[in-house]
Design brief:
Layout: E1 10-12, H1 20-31, E2 36-43, H2 50-59, E3 65-73, H3 77-87, E4 93-98, H4 102-113, H5 123-137, E5 142-145, H6 155-166, E6 174-179, E7 182-183, E8 186-187, H7 190-206, H8 212-222, E9 232-235, H9 250-261, E10 267-273, H10 291-309, H11 316-343, H12 350-373, H13 384-390, H14 394-409
Parallel strand pairs: 1-10, 2-3, 2-5, 3-4, 6-10
Antiparallel strand pairs: 5-9, 6-9, 7-8
Helix pairs in contact: 1-6, 5-14, 7-8, 7-10, 7-11, 9-10, 10-12, 11-12
Length: about 400
Amino acid sequence: MDFYQNGIITTLHNLVDRSIEDMESDLLKYSKTRPLGLILPSLYSELQTPALSRIVEELKSVPYLEEIVVGLDRANEAEYRHALEFFSVLPQNVKVIWNDGPRMKAIHKKLVEEGIAPEAPGKGRNVWYMIGYVLGSDKVESVALHDCDIVTYDRSLLARLIYPVANPQFNYAFAKGFYTRIANQTMNGRVTRLLVTPLIRALQKTAGEQNERADEYLSHIDSYRYPLAGEFAFRTGVISDLRIPSDWGLEIGVLSEMKRNISSNRICQVDIADIYDHKHQDLSADDAQKGLSKMSIDISKAFFRKLAAEGVTFTQEGFRTLKATYYRIALDLIESYRNDAIMNGLKLDVHKEEIAVEMFAENIIKAGNHFLDAPMETPFIPSWNRVSSAFPEIMQEITDAVAADMEEYKAK
């Protein structure tokens, strides 16, 4: 049994085969005094996939959710109508935000003109508007978030994810999901294994040794077993002041904000799945605007911005040193992963692993150059506290827009 606690934050393990019915019985009891919700960022194209169909089928049996909020991206009117029908099979109170509809576009235009909304569409912007909706509707006190491309989904994932922030005997305000990334007899999670872990450790060597606050931050992030997991749960009290990146730095940005806003004894990570697989991104080594290449640049920039805010000074020479340090650590880790894979009868292509590391090393330099060239770039989407200060009625406008869209476009 793995009950070991390492790092700064509490790890909640899956030590026994507790039945889902037993856990849901607890959650149903907790939900009477602490209403629970779920937010789902979804592209319309995901409605055509077996993954989302399976997720919806599993959610039909979840008894403890007060509200499910779906953020729908890249959908025209006909597709929005189809989405309303698609999610209408759920017995919970379901709200579908049509981000591309005229009402939400008008709200978005007003916020962009004031400089307090993310202009580029994407998961970050979608999650941000769902958070705004949840705060505006004020129906739940704890909310979970997970992606819509989990092909191995079952409802125990959600139960384990939301349990730490639902149980009134616990003090946690934030829970981060983690899981084993093994599928098709190989190790997945390349960006975490080959970029994030060695980059954190390289930053500890190059920046952390000179800056105590930076070292404390990096140790905090290194405590997470799977920092890029897209599964979170929050008490709603901590999301109104959340500033998140709108790009692939979203997950690291959320962890950074939790470190900044709440004490470590109110943060935990929880084992939510024995098996987890989802849609995989291409490496895209020849295009820095796509796939894992863009992801690695965005994530690196998220680290550099956060460390700069902690007083770390970056230079081109420093980034070259960081690249060399990262590269050596990453290559050593490949050897560890290879041996782990062999012992467990798994496949691991060392050549492909090293190709990925070489690309990530180059992208650390690209991210560093971008950071130095654009020092005034706004790294975060403003918090909802700031937005509601500028527009006190904005959350009500969003909930009204969603209600009006659902009423106007529902199936006749």
